[in-house]
Amino acid sequence: MTNERVYLSTTIPYVNARAHLGHALELVQADVLARHHRLAGDQVRSQTGTDDNSLKNVLAAEAEGVAVAALVDRNASAFAALRDPLSLSFDDFIRTGSDPRHRPGVERLWYACAASGDLYRKRYEGLYCVGCEQFYRPAELPDGLCPEHGTRPERVAEENWFFRLSRYAGQLHDLISSGRLRIEPAARRNEVLGFIAGGLEDFSASRSTARARGWGIPVPGDPDQVIYVWWDALGNYITAPGYGTGGEDYERWWNGADRRIHLVGKGVLRFHAVYWPAILLSAGEPLPTDILVHDYLTIGGSKISKSGAVAGNETADPVELVSRYGTDAVRWWLLREVPRVGDADFTAARLTARANDDLANGLGNLVSRVVTLVHRYRQGKAPRPGERPATAAGGRALAAACDRAPERIAAALAAFDFRAATAAVWDIVDEANRYVERAEPWLLARAERDGDASAGRLLDESLALLVGACRELAITLAPFLPCLAGRIRTALDGSAGQLPAAEPVFPRLETSSAGAVV
Ligand SMILES: [Zn+2]
What we know:
The chain is an alpha/beta fold. Helices cover 47% and strands 15% of the residues. The chain has helices spanning 21-39, 55-64, 68-80, 102-115, 169-177, 186-197, 229-234, 236-239, 249-255, 269-283, 318-325, 327-337, 348-378, 395-414, 418-439, 441-449, 453-477, 482-491; strands spanning 5-9, 43-50, 92-95, 119-129, 134-136, 154-163, 182-184, 203-204, 206-208, 218-219, 222-227, 259-265, 290-294, 297-299, 302-303, 344-346. Strands 3-2-1-12-13-7 form a 6-stranded parallel sheet, with helices on both faces. A 4-stranded antiparallel sheet has the order 5-4-6-8, with helices on one face. It has a 3-stranded antiparallel sheet with strand order 9-11-10. Strand 4 and strand 5 (134-136) form a beta hairpin. Helix 12 packs across helix 13, helix 16 (441-449) runs antiparallel to helix 17 and helix 17 runs antiparallel to helix 18 (482-491). The longest helix has 31 residues, at 348-378. It is elongated, with a radius of gyration of 26 Å. 45% of the residues are buried. Zinc ion is lined by residues 129, 131-132, 146, 148-149.
C-alpha cells in the first residue's frame, strides 16, 4: 500500500472527427494506471476530455456545412461514449468548449502570467500549420512540409500576444535533467533536453479573432484576440480540478497531489514538456511530476488519417472493433503488443491471433482445466492451501511467479512499460500451465483411489496451488482486463461451498482462412 494521492490525465483530443484506435491506446493506458494505483491503495483522480476550441474543429464544420457547436457536440459525445466499450474508469471528463470550470481557469492563468511580466504584444510573421496549431521555423520543415501532416504550412502575419518562453530555458533544463519533472521513456527526455538546448523562442499565445473565426476564449481585455488553443487546451489539466472556480479540489488534486501524471503522444511532447511547465512556472503553480510518452499506431501499415480513415479493409474505429472482438481482446492487443518505444502496426488478424493464443488458449484453458479438476476429483470443493505449499514438480516456480508479480507489475508501470507489466502476469499463466503438466493431478488421483493417502495429500496441495494461482491472476489482471478478471473471479468463487461448473472465461474468436472474423 503506497497511499499516495495521484492525479492522472490523458491529452484532450480535438474533435474534428470521431475517435480512432490511437485515442483508445492512450485512454486504455491511462485506465490501467488509474486502476493499478487504486488497487495499490492510492487515492486517484483520472481525467480525460475534449479540446473543443481548436480551429481544426471550425474547419471540419465548414467542410461538412454544419454549425461548429453541433459538430463539436456530436464528436465530443462520441469520445465520452468510449467509456463503456473500452471499460474506462475515468473520474472526470472536461469539454473545454462548454464546461463552466474551464474559461475562468484559462483567464486566471492568463492574468497570472501577465502579472509575472511574461505576456507582451508583438508583430509576427511565420509559417503556420493548422493541423498542428503551431508556427514552424523553415529549418523544421523538410521540403517545406509539416513533419506531422505532410502539408504546406500557410504564411501568417499578424500582431499577437507572446509568452516569454525564453526566460524559462534554464529552469526547464534543470527540472527535467534532475528528474524533478520526469519524462519517460529516456529517449523522449533527451529529445526535450535537446530542444531546450537548441534555444527557446517566445511563442505566440493568441490569434486574431478573425483568423480563429471567432471560435475560442477571448484574451482578457483584448477582444480582437483569442487565446492560443494550445494554451487553452493545456489549461484543462488545472481548470477541471477548479483552478479558476475555487473549491477544495484544486488544493487536493493539483497542489496537494503526490504525483501529477500526464499521458501524451510523442507528437505533442513539446507542448507538454516545455510550453506547459513554463506557463505553470510563470503562474507560480506546481508542475506535473511525470510525463509519460507513447508512440503512434499504424493500421495495416498506413498512418491513421486526420479523419480516422484507414486504407484497406481494416477499421480504426475502437467501438466497431469492440463490437466485433470484445473489450478484452482490444485492450489486450493495445497493452500486450504496443511497444514502449517505436510505432506499432494494428491489424484485426494480429488482434485475433493474440487474443486466441493468450486469452483463449493460455489463460482460458488454464482456468477451465483447474475448475474441471476440482470438480472431477474434489466434488467442486477447492482444497485449502496446506501448511507447506506444494513445492514439488515445479510448484515452487509457480508460487514464485505469483509472489513476484505485484512488484514486477508496479515497477513496469512506473516505467510506463505495459508489455513488461503484462509479461509479469503472463509468467503466472505459463508457470501454472507447466505445473499442471508436471504435477499430473490425474495420476495422483488414480494413486489415491488405489489407497495411496500421500498421493491424496499431494493432489490437495497441487489443486490448492492452482486455484490460488488463478485467483492471483484475477487480481493481477484486473487493471489490464477488468471484464475478464471479473469472469475469472466468478469462475473461482467458492463462497457457495463449491466452484461453479466450468465455463470458458474467454471463448476463441473465430477466424476465416483469410484471417477475418466470420
Ligand atoms: Zn502539422
